[in-house]
Amino acid sequence: MEAMVDVRNVVRRFGSFLAVDDVSFGVGRGEVIGFLGPNGAGKSTTMKMITGFLLPSAGAINVGGYDVVADPIEAKRNIGYLPEGAPAYPDMTSRQFLNFIADIRHLDGPVRRRRLDLVIEQTHIGDVLDQPIDTLSKGYKRRVGLAQAILHDPPILVLDEPTDGLDPNQKHEMRGLIGSMAAEKAIIISTHILEEVEAICTRAIIISHGRLVAEGWPEAEGWRLGDLQVEPGRLDAAFRQITGAAA
Ligand SMILES: Nc1ncnc2c1ncn2[C@@H]1O[C@H](COP(=O)(O)OP(=O)(O)OP(=O)(O)O)[C@@H](O)[C@H]1O
Ligand SMILES: [Mg+2]
Question: Which of 29, 54, 111, 197 gives 201 a disulfide partner, CB atoms 3.0 to 4.6 angstroms apart?
């Protein structure tokens, strides 16, 4: 499998606080990694380092063949990132925001038109294009954020809680959309919804207190999560066993 993202011995400190503590993993094309862990575990911090929004205190991250510190622009070209919360620039309408992103991503001519039309359709935001982002509901803000992340059709996607705030129909849609993009891309999603992991992830990584504490993957029946053999629909209990004990 072709490795698209390589995280090696990455550490991140905030002052004396160790938010990410020696985390290593790789992600290949065709993989959808579920990034799991309790609140404050270090998921978003790790994602911010992969996407170049925060520098690692130690360790190395390679994205699409580029070191995120040495070649930040090239690394970022290869990545679509949905940060936590809402897209920036709340005064812009969704349309203005996506056009702004299209400019930044250097999309021109027919490709630009085609990509904009496609992501607007894929994220179902056609009805809110001329509304300021500020005034959108939480779920619609998430959808505009996703549209922005996939606009340049990057080979790597880093999605921080992509289904947070979506209604059940949109959650289902979002999972379908991620699944449909999975074969061609390397995707990392964080989520607290473990049925989502069972539905779309090819592997799971659990971090707790900044450390990688378990990896998991689907088996013929259910999942393997660290040392645990997990029956279908029981990932929640296994997650609590792995991360609750450490707390
Ligand atoms: N800029 C910062 N300065 C100081 N501490 C920070 C900063 N950013 C994150 N932290 C701390 O680092 C830890 C990890 O935070 P992070 O946002 O990565 O957690 P998370 O796993 O994404 O949690 P959640 O599930 O709540 O989103 C937390 O204790 C957080 O308070
Ligand atoms: Mg987070």
Answer: 197
